[in-house]
Amino acid sequence: MAIKITETILRDAHQSLIATRMPTEFMLPIVEKMDKVGYHSVECWGGATFDASLRFLKEDPWDRLRKLKDGFKNTKLQMLFRGQNILGYRPYADDVVENFVEKSVANGIDIIRIFDCLNDLRNLQATVDATNKIKAREGRGHAQIALSYTLGDAYTMEYWVDMAKKIEEMGADSICIKDMAGLLVPYKAAELIKEMKAVTKLPIQLHTHYTSGVASMTYLKAVEAGVDVIDCAMSPFAMGTSQPATEVMVETFKGTEYDTGFDQNLLAEIADYFRPYRDECLANGLLNPKVMGVDIKTLLYQVPGGMLSNMVSQLKEQNAEDKYYDVLKEIPLVRKDLGEPPLVTPSSQIVGTQAVFNVLMGERYKMATDQTKDVLRGKYGQTVKPMNQEVIDKVIPGEERITCRPADLIENEMSKLESEMAEWKQQDEDVLSYALFPQVATDFFKYRQAQQDKVDPTVADAKNGAYPV
Ligand SMILES: [Mn+2]
């Protein structure tokens, strides 16, 4: 069967290579051509696009979505959603999750890819249910559950197969294996896809990054093993910390039973559009050539690239760069203490920062971050392995731990959020922008107001969010 392709250049590719800085006005002129390719979907929203739009680009992310929807008349639009954390950094009440899903679909999203940093499926149920509710009502909306792929004692073939069965039972429409760091090697991928296919009828999509250099080989083996969809990026923003190149995968499968049928000339025209922008990003430093190569440390230490660079900068700040290898050794130990979670935002940063603390303080858990405490309290959910009791006793002595679904303890908060930001509200969606990033969204609302009042932005004090009226 023809292999299907999700194009990531409008989301993950530029998030991974240029810190999510591609502006909407640059995307729009090429949409008509992209719409003719025949993609399974175009990933264009969610992840960090929301934060970056409001914070750095001074764009309304909802407006971006509506404009993309206007242009993509034939192609499904896809977003990445952090389960109960939505697109923010804390767990939200179910009413916010439900409202966000409603508005995402209403503004143009077709496929919602939902993941949790601990692979705690309870944190995904509210999003799946909300999507299914819309689907039953309108016939639109697709809930895809993504498993954060990782290595470790707990992550056996039985674990992944069991998760696939549970995802089907939860009412999801498809499964994604989401490999953030490029840890899934080709032969392992073939085995994984075969075993999962044997227990579920759901379509399986594979998402990986080129970071460790194996990604296109992994796709080849996964496709041969029956994977349904692969995530690729147009060549100017492919490889490195991004995805394998769309044109390369299309050519690889040409003339085989997996032939996509895509027109290489059309793809070349699209690549021609993006290439000068890549050159511009290289010239202004937004695209660092360092992220374009193979980072073999990813395979050696099984630590995602973003986490390593974070750790290096934390050590630099403390003048302790000589402790680099001590911290690298400490990371898997902290990860074990915290129940061996996948290393993906935010668990990757929590584990990395705690490892730095443990090494620099000269005593493990002498100081624990608030986030480490919250993981130990169960506020992020359940980990695949039990956490280290000695560490729990040392860091949160005598505290009661959460064992239920964490969001069961959060009261509905939409009306409270709305009353906090009422003076800025111009559309229902503004309440959701505020819910995710209260400060950043408020700054954006002030900026938007100033634009509408025709204030000269050059005399505005953007840093303090003050605009002369
Ligand atoms: Mn990704």
Walk me through this protein's architecture.
The chain is α/β, with parallel strands linked by helices and 469 residues long. The protein has helices at residues 12-18, 24-34, 49-57, 61-71, 94-106, 125-138, 157-169, 186-199, 215-224, 246-252, 264-284, 297-301, 305-317, 324-337, 347-360, 370-377, 389-395, 414-421, 429-436, 438-452; strands at residues 4-7, 41-46, 77-81, 111-114, 142-148, 174-178, 204-207, 229-232. An 8-stranded parallel barrel has the order 1-2-3-4-5-6-7-8, surrounded by 5 helices. Helix 5 (94-106) crosses helix 6 (125-138) and helix 8 packs parallel to helix 9 (215-224). The radius of gyration is 22 Å and the shape is globular. The mean pLDDT is 94. Manganese (II) ion binds at residues 12, 180, 207, 209. Residues 12, 180, 207, 209 line the site of manganese (II) ion.
Ligand list: manganese (II) ion
Mean pLDDT rating = 94
Order of helices and strands: EHHEHHEHEHEHEHEHEHHHHHHHHHHH
Q: How far apart, in Å, are the first and last alpha carbons?
A: 61 Å
Please state the overall shape, judged from the principal axes of the Cα atoms. globular
Strand order of the biggest β-sheet? 1-2-3-4-5-6-7-8
Helical coverage, percent range: 40-55%
Largest sheet, in brief, is: 8 strands, parallel, barrel
- Strand count: 8
Range of strand content: 5-15%
Q: What structural class do you assign from the helix and strand content?
A: alpha/beta
Uncertain stretches of 5 or more adjacent residues:
none
Question: What's the number of helices?
Answer: 20
Report the C-alpha radius of gyration, rounded.
Answer: 22 Å
